[in-house]
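Figure 6 in text form: structure in, sequence out.
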């Protein structure tokens, strides 16, 4: 087994701006494949706009991209009753788990050694909770979770600068209709 086969990482990408920064950060140490699963995003044209931007970074950086199923109705059922939660509340924790679990399952099914998520780049997300969920799912799915808070060492600032340099779309809200403010 070659070193790159031993370090295959499935990177859950929430958006192109965060995905570009984190994939470049990890590219020297891992064979990175992007994974786009974000059933929380609403409306569907916003979902499509974000996925088109992720396709651009996959093409530009010559990375493989796996696109998960989009099922916003199923996501709404998971967060039912949490519609009025504030950002970083229980609804967000459910959403983190949904996206990370889908990523862990895809990593297991596609023989990846590691999985992680760009979600920790954002200062609006609870990196410690994301890491805890990722570590739990790693045990459940038998795939290592790369527990890293990508916002450290000015990660968010660097992600924003890179997305501007690359001309990537930067959304104004996390994704779901409840985060639109």
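Output sequence:
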């Amino acid at each position: 087994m070659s070193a790159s086969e031993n370090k295959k990482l499935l990177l859950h990408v929430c958006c192109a701006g965060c995905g570009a920064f984190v994939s470049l950060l990890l590219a020297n140490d891992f064979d990175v494949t992007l994974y786009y699963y974000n059933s929380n995003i609403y409306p569907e044209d916003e979902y499509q706009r974000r996925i088109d931007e992720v396709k651009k970074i996959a093409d530009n950086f010559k990375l493989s991209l796996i696109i998960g199923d989009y099922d916003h109705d199923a996501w709404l059922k998971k967060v039912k009753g949490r519609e009025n939660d504030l950002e970083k509340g229980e609804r967000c924790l459910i959403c983190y788990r949904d996206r990370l679990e889908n990523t862990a399952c895809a990593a297991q099914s596609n023989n990846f050694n590691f999985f992680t998520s760009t979600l920790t780049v954002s200062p609006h997300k609870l990196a410690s909770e994301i890491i805890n969920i990722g570590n739990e799912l790693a045990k459940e799915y038998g795939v290592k979770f790369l527990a890293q808070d990508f916002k450290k060492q000015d990660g968010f600032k660097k992600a924003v600068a890179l997305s501007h340099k690359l001309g990537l779309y930067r959304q104004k809200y996390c994704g779901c209709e409840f985060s639109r403010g």
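Caption detail: The beta strands are 8-12, 31-36, 64-67, 114-117, 144-145.
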